[in-house]
Amino acid sequence: MKIMSNCSQGELRKAAKALKEGHLVAFPTETVYGLGADATNEIAVSRIYSVKARPTDHPLIVHLLSINQLSIWARDIPNFASKLAGNFWPGPMTLILRKNESVKHFITGGQENVGIRIPSNTLALELLREFEKLGGTGVAAPSANRFGGVSPTTAEAVSEELENYMGPSDLILNGGQSEVGIESTIIDCTGDQPVILRPGAVTIEMVEQVAGKVVKFDLSTNSIRASGLLEKHYSPKARVILGKTAQPGDGFIALAKIKTPKGVIRLAAPKTIEEFAKVFYIGLRMADQKGISSVTVHCPENKGLAVAIRDRLNRAVLGK
Ligand code: TXA
Ligand code: MG
Predict the structure, then answer these.
(1) What is the DSSP track for 27-47?
(2) Taking 60 as the threshold, does the pLDDT of residue 226 lie above it?
(3) Ligand 2 centroid distance, CA of 21 (Å)
(4) pTM
(5) Which of 46, 99, 212, 265 to pair with 170, CA 20 to 30 A apart?
(6) Which residue's C-alpha comes closest to atom 22 of ligand 1?
(7) What would the 3-class secondary structure string for 175-200 be?
């Protein structure tokens, strides 16, 4: 496995060629780093599952360069989904759509729908452009972490997570720190109205403004399977504690305006909710690096982007 930094066009071409030849390429997106494979190559896709140690019935998101490629993957796209695509792509949003017949079950976890996203990161789009020039149609990419762990937001974090599992011809593209810092908003568009399966930087309010009323997701009545919806997920080794007073020796993540209690190790002090999202996986990773066993987190008020932060935190809390 090789890390490529300051990627030139020539190197991106090489990375696209590696994808086309069935190797894995981890790459930055604006949300988190993805572990990419040619979405039409069953063997390459199966390597994603083994490198991540992820159960094979969990579907993967297919990343596209442009909306022109959408009809290769999806059909019967409802009007509200087209509006969402037009407004928020490229960007931190994944749409679950009815799959085209040609889309294989090794991508969809055996389901009849497919997750699609056009990322807004320049390096990711350049990689997708070079991949398209070679005849590629889509890159399957889950977050580049081991199953159940914290998503990486830097190339170093990808390497830390996966270097023991990636192969000698696999690559990691270094594009610096992911801008958003938490995974995309996932919206199920297979019914009459949008259903948010995973909150993200495209907030519920933003979806409602463009696509009308959002239906509340109900895990007990929805047949959709998604690992990010498991109660236990996004967990560091450290125990995550929400909202309680931090004890001496604990790690601590809170907005900068909240003072660090005595004897507590400050892991992040973001000034805004956006900055909170951007640094909080880095803070959780830092806790594990420092061997801290508990991290207390004070999450900002539960609206807008903070809904997504709280969603991940709740799952991280249940992870222990
Ligand atoms: O921001 C993101 O979405 C990142 C970057 C790399 O694009 N990707 C990501 O992928 O978070 P992953 O696999 O770690 O999480 C995607 C979630 C998983 O829980 C997966 O099961 C679900 O989306 N998913 C993917 N395709 C689906 C489908 N067809 N139906 C239902 N859930 C799906
Ligand atoms: Mg993930």
Answers:
(1) E--SSS-EEEEETT-HHHHHH
(2) no
(3) 24
(4) 0.95
(5) 99
(6) 226
(7) CCCCCCCCCCEEEECCCCCCEEEECC
